[in-house]
Amino acid sequence: MRTRLTLWYVGVLALALVAFSSSVYAVTAYNLHQRLDTGLRTLLQVAVVSLTHGAEEGLTNEAAAKREVAELSNSFQSLAIFDAEGRLLAESLSRDGFHARLPQLNLIPDSEAYLYTASGGEDGDDHFRLAVQRARVTPDGKPLIVLVSQPLEPVEDELELLLSIFAYAVPIALLLAGGGGWFLAHKNLAPVVTMSEWARRIGAENLDERLPVANPRDELGRLAIVFNELLARLSAAFAQQRQFMADASHELRTPLSVVQTAASVTLEQPHRAEGDYRDALAVIGDQTRRLSRIVEDMFTLARADSGRRPLTLGRFYLDELIGETARAASVLAARKGVVVEAAESAEVLYYGDEDLLRQMLLNLLDNAIRHTPAGGVVRVSLAQFDSTCEVVVADTGAGIPVDAQPHIFERFYRLDKARSLSGGDAKGNGGGAGLGLSIARWIAEAHGGTLRLAHSDSTGAVFAVELPFKQS
Q1: Residue 142 DSSP class
Q2: What is the pTM of this model?
Q3: Domains of the chain by start residue, with CATH
Q4: Is 360 in contact with 444 (CB distance < 8 Å)?
Q5: Strand 126-135 vs strand 450-457: parallel, antiparallel, or unpaired?
Q6: Which tens digits make up the pLDDT trace of 274-322?
Q7: Burial letters for 291-327: b for 16+ Cβ neighbours within 10 Å, e otherwise?
C-alpha cells in the first residue's frame, strides 16, 4: 500500500508538473515570439516613414534607401530595401551577417507586413524571423520593398534554457516528492501495521483486548474504534453463546437426571407392581416432553439467530387467531384452575406469519398461566389503530419483581424457584426453560413490532405486543 500510495502521489505530481511546465513553456515561447514580431513591425514602420520623408525631400530611391539603412542599422536587426522588381538598393547586416532574401513577390501584401521564418548560416541550422512590406513612397506609384530580419537564436536560447531548467527541476521535484511521499505513507500507515499486529494476537480466548487508538478523530482512529466496537459485539456474542450453552446444559441436565433417577429406582428391584412402572413411565414421559420443548425452542432461536427462519407471510384474521389460541390455552389453564378470557374485538385482517404469531401468543399465555395462582384470570385483548394493532396479555399473578424486569426477555432467565415452579407438580415438572419470552420477542420484532412489559405490580403483569400493518 505504501508503494501504491507513493506511486499514485508521484504520478499525479508528475502529470501536474508536466502540464505546468508545458504551459509555462508555451506561454513564454508565445510571448518571446510576439515581442520579436513587434520589434520587427516597429522597425519596418520606422523605415517606411523615413523613406516617405526622403521622397518628400526629393531624394532618389537609392539615396533614400542608403540613408535609412545607415541610420537604422543595429547589431541585432538587418534592414534591406528593394525596388518594385526586387533589386537590392541598400542593405545593413546584423552581426550574424545574414543576407535576407525576398519571398515570392506575389506573397507580399500591398498594405500590411508579411512575417515569415527562414533558415540561414553556413549549415542552414540558424533561423531568422523576417518582416516585409511594400512602401508606396515614390511619386510614380512604384513601391519600394522594405525587408527587416532578426535572428531567432536569442529566443531559442532562452527557450532552451527554460527547457533545461524544467528537465532538471521536474525529476528532482519528483524524487523529493517520492521520498517524502514514502516517508509520509510509512508514517501514516504505521497505525494500520500496529492494528494488524494487535488483531493477529486477538482470538476467541482474549476477545476482551482492544486495538490501540492513537487519534480518535482521524480516519484510522475511527477505523480502530469501529473495529473495537466489532470486537465488543463479538465478545458479547461469544459470551452469550457460552452462557447459552451453559444454561442449555443446565436445563437439559435436570430432566435427564429425573429420567435417569426414575429408571434406576424402578429397575433396582426385579419385580414391581404395575402402578410403579406406570408412575415411572409417566415421569419419564413428562420429562421427555419437557426435553422436546426445550430442544424445539433452542432450535427455533438458533434458526432465528442465523437468519434461516424466513417468514411465511399471508393474510388472516388476527382476532380469530387470538380466539383459537385462547381456547387452546384454556385446556392447560383448567388444570390449574385458571380462567383464560378473550375480549371481544372487531375483525382485524393482518398480513404476517400465522404460525409464528400463534406460537408467540401461546408462549405469552403459557407464561401468564404458569405465573397465575389457582382461581386467577388471564385476559387477552386486541385493539386496532391507524397503522398498528396491539395485543395485550394480562394476568392476576403476583407480578414481576422490579430487579428482575430488565432480564425477563433474556434466554434461560427465570424468576425465583417459587415463582418459576408455581406451575409445577409433584413430579417435578417446572414452569419452563426461560425461552418463551425470548422467542415471543423475536417473533414480534421479525414482524417489525415490539414486545414489552407494559405493567407489573402485586395485581399482576401485563405484556403488550405492537404489530404494524404491512402491505402484501
Answers
A1: P
A2: 0.49
A3: 2-159 (3.30.450.20), 202-309 (1.10.287.130), 310-468 (3.30.565.10)
A4: yes
A5: unpaired
A6: 787 788 888 888 778 777 777 776 777 676 666 666 778 899 999 999 9
A7: bebbeebbebbeebeeeebeeeeeebebbebbbebbe
